[in-house]
């Protein structure tokens, strides 16, 4: 995630969450050293047939945020001949504009790589724009751009071998600036991811928790799987969910006889 078209400074990141439950895997980290006065926070979740990538940036001042997607291959959706460079330094001078459009609605892009076809479904946001550019190695690059004090960029990645790409990728209204929600549909189920950017208990839609990352998977029969990292409880009265562990950490629950039940402590 580039800020104001400048290169990042060397820095260390802080691991906020890590959990491997087998069917679901979570990793989250942040840094405050890449740019002065800027926090970068990235969460990656693997669902078995998709990679969910949610990148968050915030600052007290307004910045131009560029979330870059660069893979070895060509984008079939790219249109137009290469035009002027996107910038004058820090690598932007090597990116030649092909197309610029609004990213208010969800976007779908596919890269044909030497190994496979990679599909990237991007959640739309009203203040974001999409830029397609040609890179120095004739590779095609996509950027999501936003000018603001805070920005969220959501993507769901899928390779051909994992079946059909994710559908209806979207940010969801949480009612709280400190909780970001992303949802999508794939393989007959809906996956919802909630990220808390403030320690302590929070509430978003019907969910209550103190987890730093919460992932919920539903199918046509209802809630199928749920996991969290960095918290002690998850509740949803509307869905009769009330799960708790003794100490802040990781937990995984799956449907058993119509009810979500926590896996044994040894599995956490």
Q: Which SSEs are present, and which pair or pack?
A:
Blueprint: E1 2-3, E2 14-20, E3 25-31, E4 38-46, E5 51-70, E6 74-75, E7 96-102, E8 107-112, E9 117-122, E10 128-134, E11 140-159, E12 167-172, E13 179-186, E14 189-196, E15 202-204, E16 207-209, E17 213-219, E18 222-236, E19 241-256, E20 259-262
Notable characteristics:
eleven-stranded antiparallel sheet, 61% strand, 20 strands, single chain, nine-stranded antiparallel sheet
What does this 3D model show about the protein?
0% of the residues lie in helices and 61% in strands. The protein is mainly beta and 268 residues long. A hairpin with a 6-residue loop joins strand 3 and strand 4. The model has no long low-confidence stretch (mean pLDDT 93).
Strand content: over 45%
What general form does the structure show? Answer: globular
List the uncertain runs.
Answer: none
Helix and strand run:
EEEEEEEEEEEEEEEEEEEE
* C-alpha end-to-end distance: 31 Å
Distinct helical segment count:
0
Relative helix content: under 10%
Q: Which structural class fits the helix and strand makeup? A: mainly beta
Strand element count: 20
Mean pLDDT: 93
Largest sheet: 11 strands, antiparallel
Radius of gyration based on Cα positions: 19 Å
């Amino acid at each position: 995630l580039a800020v104001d078209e400048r290169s990042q400074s060397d820095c260390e990141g802080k691991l906020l969450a890590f959990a491997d439950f087998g069917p679901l895997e979570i990793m989250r980290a942040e840094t405050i050293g890449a740019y002065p006065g800027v926090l970068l926070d990235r969460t990656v979740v693997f669902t078995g047939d998709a990679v969910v990538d949610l990148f968050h940036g915030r600052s007290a001042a307004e910045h131009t945020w560029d979330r870059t997607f660069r893979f070895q291959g060509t984008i079939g959706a790219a249109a137009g001949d290469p035009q002027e460079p996107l910038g004058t330094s820090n690598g932007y001078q090597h990116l030649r504009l092909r197309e610029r459009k609004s990213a208010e609605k969800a976007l779908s892009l596919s890269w044909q790589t030497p190994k496979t076809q990679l599909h990237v479904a991007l959640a739309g946001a009203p203040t974001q724009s999409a830029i397609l550019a040609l890179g120095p190695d004739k590779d095609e690059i996509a950027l999501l751009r936003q000018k603001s004090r805070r920005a969220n960029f959501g993507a769901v990645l899928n390779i051909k071998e994992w079946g059909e790409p994710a559908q209806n990728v979207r940010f969801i209204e949480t009612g709280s600036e400190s909780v970001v929600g992303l949802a999508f549909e794939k393989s007959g189920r809906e996956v919802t991811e909630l990220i808390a950017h403030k320690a302590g208990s929070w509430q978003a839609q019907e969910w209550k928790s103190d987890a730093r990352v919460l992932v919920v998977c539903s199918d046509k029969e209802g809630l199928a799987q749920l996991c969290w990292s960095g918290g002690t409880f998850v509740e949803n009265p509307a869905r009769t969910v009330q799960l708790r562990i003794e100490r802040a950490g990781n937990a995984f629950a799956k449907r058993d006889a119509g009810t979500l039940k926590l896996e044994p402590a040894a599995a956490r």
